[in-house]
Amino acid sequence: MPSPFPGMDPYLEGYLWPDVYHRLATQISDQLMPMLRPRYVARIEIQVVPDATPEADIGIMYPDVEVVRAHQHGHELPSASTGMDMRTAEALPITPTSLSVPLLDVEVRLATVEIRDTAHNRLVTSVEILSPVNKREPGLSKYREKRRQLHAADVHILEIDLLRRGQRPLVHPRIPPSAYRITLIRAAVHCADIWSLRLQDALPIVPIPLRTPDAEIPLDLATAFTTIYDRAAYDLSLNYAEPPPPPPLLAEEQVWVRQRLSSSA
């Protein structure tokens, strides 16, 4: 069963996002390979990074955990070997704490589709699919620095942002607000091509630049997304009767989503 949405499905921005993320990277690589060979190859580079601020995604992408738990009264006290007189210890019961907050230790696997030339294995184009950790500090600054280094090394960068939450890595007053965004930064060019996408918009076909004089090749994001949605059977896991994951939709988006889901039921 296909997604009821013409473009990105906002219901996939929750706990299913890690699966969507890695399937999309694999599908992009598979789609590009026949057009790249024999002069180029697409490889998936995996980097494991800590999520220093996972609290923002608890209950959205990460499992909802119990973060508040009252301690029971009447804890046993240390033995008399601690040097405290037992009568004194009995007279001074320990005050129970009011909260028990788990310390979260989360690691995230970030996938990059790297296009390299086969002659020298040089990185030509980096396809970056943004994860929530890339869109909030400290991961946001680290990603911006990675992008700066890639651009300085004359690497093309295609940035795919299919998450409504978080901060966009590229901020410019001329870029309109949108649910999703695709950004292309070509090597040695000091400007970016932007595809600002509403919920109502289909995912675009975008160019993948290569080394001069080789022509650009197309990446059909709509086909890539439709393929992974079908193969992963996401329709069996999603409850379209509930609101999509945060952030809340705008009023006009809520109306459109209700109409869209009603017409596809």
What does this 3D model show about the protein?
This protein has 265 residues and is an alpha+beta fold. It has one domain. Strands 1-2-3-4-5-6 form a six-stranded mixed β-sheet, sandwiched between helices. A two-stranded antiparallel sheet has the order 7-8. α1 packs across α4.
Biggest sheet: strands, sense, closure?
Answer: 6 strands, mixed
State the end-to-end distance. Answer: 11 Å
Principal-axis shape equals globular
String of helices and strands: HEHEEHEEEEEHH
Counted by DSSP, the helix tally is: 5
> Average pLDDT value?
89
- Integer-rounded radius of gyration: 24 Å
Structural class: alpha+beta
| Number of beta strands | 8
Quaternary structure classification: single chain
The residue fraction in helices comes out at 10-25%
Strand content: 15-25%
Tally of separate domains: 1
Topology at a glance:
Elements: H1 17-36, E1 40-51, H2 86-91, E2 106-117, E3 123-129, H3 139-152, E4 156-161, E5 180-185, E6 192-197, E7 205-208, E8 217-220, H4 221-232, H5 251-264
Parallel strand pairs: 3-4
Antiparallel strand pairs: 1-2, 2-3, 4-5, 5-6, 7-8
In short:
It is built from five helices and eight strands; from the N terminus they run H-E-H-E-E-H-E-E-E-E-E-H-H. It has helices at 17-36, 86-91, 139-152, 221-232, 251-264; strands at 40-51, 106-117, 123-129, 156-161, 180-185, 192-197, 205-208, 217-220. The strands form two sheets. The protein has a six-stranded mixed β-sheet, with helices on both faces.
